[in-house]
Design goal:
Blueprint: E1 4-8, E2 20-22, E3 33-34, H1 46-52, H2 62-65, E4 69-70, E5 85-88, H3 91-98, E6 105-114, E7 134-148, H4 150-154, E8 179-183, E9 188-195, H5 207-212, E10 226-228, H6 230-240
């Protein structure tokens, strides 16, 4: 019996000032937020990441390209990432995330802006669920392997952080995570997004939010934590796997 939590991550109109793109076929690009705290060692910049990712459908100013990135969550196989980890320094998130058990799901969702692909880039046939301007979408999932709660994080001496050393919070000086989640090898950054917004408007929640999660879908729901009980988690996993529509 598994439960799930979905939390908002990734670049947005506040940090660094733009959202990642989603294309008419539902493919997308995950872009992290900037790193705003001191780090014990140099970390990748937006320029570093963009040099290893596919071409963006919009330009990024040189000033932003020079900013370091807070690469969290990290997904194995994504540039500069070696495993599946997520950390958070905020107690309001640490509490619920600390209650996740091995086998539970931690979903990540992002607000993404609709774009046509760069010239010369081929994509698949359009889907009907990509919102016209922007929307909120699931972009990845951790199948939980281990959770370090606040007490465990506070007890992590530098020499004990090797299992999570690649996480962005372990690179900060000082280390500030109040929770760290490690995903199994069954975790993934999706190839196609899964919509949490309606096809008509990014601000309108889909039934995944209003009927499966604990959230009413009223107000700026796309900034909140979404919690799914055991039955809803199973249905959500089937939706993500493409075995069930909603």
């Amino acid at each position: 019996m598994s439960n799930a939590i979905a939390i908002n991550v990734a670049a947005n109109t506040n940090l660094p000032g733009f959202r990642g793109p989603i294309y008419p076929d539902g493919s997308f690009m995950y872009l992290p937020i900037p790193e705003r705290e001191p780090t014990a060692e140099p970390v990748a910049s937006y320029g570093d990441l963009l040099a290893e990712l596919a071409e963006l459908p919009f330009s990024v100013d040189d000033e932003i390209r020079q900013l370091p990135v807070h690469l969290d969550p990290e997904f194995a196989g994504y540039p500069r990432c070696s495993q599946y980890t997520y950390g958070d320094e905020h107690g309001v998130k640490a509490g619920p995330l600390s209650e996740l058990d091995p086998g539970d799901s931690l979903y990540f969702y992002a607000t993404l802006s609709r774009h046509e692909p760069p010239e010369g880039v081929d994509i698949g046939p359009p889907v009907e669920w990509v919102a016209p301007e922007w929307g909120a979408y699931l972009i990845g999932e951790f199948r939980v392997d281990r959770v370090y709660d606040t007490a465990a994080c506070e007890a992590l001496a530098p020499e004990d952080r090797q299992p999570v050393a690649s996480n962005a919070h372990c690179k900060r000086e000082p280390f500030d995570a109040k929770v760290l989640v490690v995903g199994t090898d069954d975790s993934q950054l999706f190839d196609r997004a899964v919509p949490l917004s309606s096809p008509d408007s990014g601000a309108t929640a889909s039934r995944v939010v209003t009927e499966l999660s604990n959230d009413s879908g009223k107000g700026p729901w796309w900034r909140r934590r979404l919690w799914f009980d055991t039955e809803s988690t199973e249905r959500l996993r089937e939706i993500v796997a493409g075995r069930r529509s909603f």
